[in-house]
């Protein structure tokens, strides 16, 4: 069950990341921003993604993998919610927090399930795909009914799922160490 929890939590984070990267310019244009500046915000999203990955690569952090995953998903959830509720131009900042999630989750898989790492990575990719399909269909269908901004709430919901699964995974790992 451990690799499944890590895989699905990663899927939740990737869903949030891809919902922003595929719809940010459209959302900003619907909010009144001209097309060219809206595209620049997408570039800012990817710059933040790069900056976040460089930060966790170059700065030694003395936190465990689950703590990093929790900070990543929690920070991303906060900025995603603020971006949808108050100011969509905050959404590129979600990438600063999401950036480390996938590599840290992969490291956690290696740390706890090294003997099955190849299957764990494949499982993660399958779970990501399994979550992405309904998320994209859901946002597309919901945006026609309730508007894109509200439909993108699937992203924060996916991050809540990721946080819950990280917590469940931590409890399972603690129980396994205690036995």
Structure description:
The protein has 179 residues and is mainly α. Helices cover 84% and strands 0% of the residues. The chain contains 8 helices and no strands. The protein has helices at residues 2-30, 35-58, 65-85, 94-98, 101-113, 117-146, 148-151, 154-178. The radius of gyration is 17 Å and the shape is globular.
Put the structure in a nutshell.
Helix content is 84%, strand content 0%.
Low-confidence stretches: none
User: Could you say which overall geometry the principal axes of the C-alpha atoms support?
Assistant: globular
What is the rounded Rg?
17 Å
SSE class: mainly alpha
Please state roughly what percent of the residues sit in beta strands, choosing from under 5%, 5-15%, 15-25%, 25-35%, 35-45% or over 45%.
under 5%
Mean pLDDT: 93
Helix tally equals 8
Helical residue percent? over 70%
Order of helices and strands: HHHHHHHH
Major sheet size, sense and barrel closure: none
What gap, in angstroms, lies between the N and C termini?
16 Å
Key descriptive features of the protein:
179 residues, mainly alpha, 8 helices
Give the SSE map.
Elements: H1 2-30, H2 35-58, H3 65-85, H4 94-98, H5 101-113, H6 117-146, H7 148-151, H8 154-178
Helix pairs in contact: 1-2, 1-5, 1-6, 1-8, 3-5, 3-8
